[in-house]
Amino acid sequence: MSKNVLILPGDGIGPEIVAEAKKVLDKAIALFGLDISYSDGLLGGASIDAHGVPFADDTREKAKAADAILLGAVGGPKWDTIDRAIRPERGLLAIRSELELFANLRPAILYPQLADASSLKPEIVAGLDILIVRELTGGIYFGEPRGIRTLENGEREGYNTYKYSESEIERIGRNAFEMARKRDKRVCSVDKANVLEATILWREVMDRLSAEYPDVELSHMYVDNAAMQLVRAPKQFDVMVTGNMFGDILSDAAAMLTGSIGMLPSASLDKNGRGMYEPCHGSAPDIAGQGVANPLATILSVAMMLRYSLDMTEAADKIEAAVSVVLDLGLRTGDIMSEGCRQVSTGEMGDAVVDALR
Ligand code: IPM
Ligand code: MG
Fold first, then answer.
1. pLDDT digit string (tens) for 151-187?
2. How high is the pLDDT of residue 232?
3. For the domain that residue 67 is a member of, what is the CATH number?
4. Which of 60, 53, 83, 49 is nearest to 8 (CA)?
5. Is ligand 1 within 6 A of the CB of residue 92?
6. What whole-number distance in Å separates Cα of residue 265 and Cα of residue 17?
7. Which of 77, 124, 234, 238 has the fewest CB neighbours in a 10 Å radius?
8. Ligand lying nearest the CA atom of residue 249
9. Which one of the listed residues 67, 111, 141, 191 is annotated catalytic?
């Protein structure tokens, strides 16, 4: 049966990088005879401009009917001053939440060719292969009550709620343990159990779950220490599992270890493996429209999509191999540029991956 992919280019550099990812997907479809059809939709600022809201019904219906979604990025200064309830980011959070895409997988893998582009010494990052499993539909991002209120003394106060139910913790925990089973069988659960009750429960549930996965080693780490360890000795980690906000922060830090956030793909999955795929980086409005953005994170997101939601493993492997070939050839966008390499544009990078895909 034909698989249906919804493509949401979004804002800023989103359309440019998604265009390159589409070229690669088209080549994979032709090369491997994949039965994939796709449609386009709007999300974020692009949707605000067209419909007045960041996640409109048309996109909602297409998203619910899709087998997988490929997203560029959302947001930009143009929409920073509008009512916060309809900012572009709210569209992203709404689509994640409504489709129950609770498991966000963010692999931080250092391509050996990029060891020089990392901000850390090559020996500290060589061979790095971490998977961050971030809870994506709960925690402080969604907890109610939330808002900005005026106190009796006339002063305003902003407030949010950090909460996790046992079942929310359990389902993301299972995901992390299952992922670890296919890797080095180690899970580090990151919390702030020395201060926050929500994460005291988080730790308790992880410990309980761990009894069902005796083959996987579970450790716990406070988030501040985890941030430090990520830049001190990142190779100690295999799978890291954590809540929504900590995962947001730690995954950006982990991304830099790999040379550039422009290299990091992600998958956001529901309980049946249906998912949305997006680069971890944002819409980078400062470089939008200049043809300098790195399309590799989006191209690698296509590979994750083929692997996790569409069961097309061979094509996924081949796309990842093609990215490696292109790096071997010394082609680099500005963000990963280093001496002796050739700097290329967004489009040239996409074309090179298409060429290398065989
Ligand atoms: C991410 C982004 C989003 C998040 C923003 C754009 C809402 O930073 O996907 O990491 O915080 O989840
Ligand atoms: Mg983020």
1. 999 999 999 999 999 999 999 999 999 999 999 999 9
2. 96
3. 3.40.718.10
4. 60
5. yes
6. 12
7. 77
8. 2
9. 141
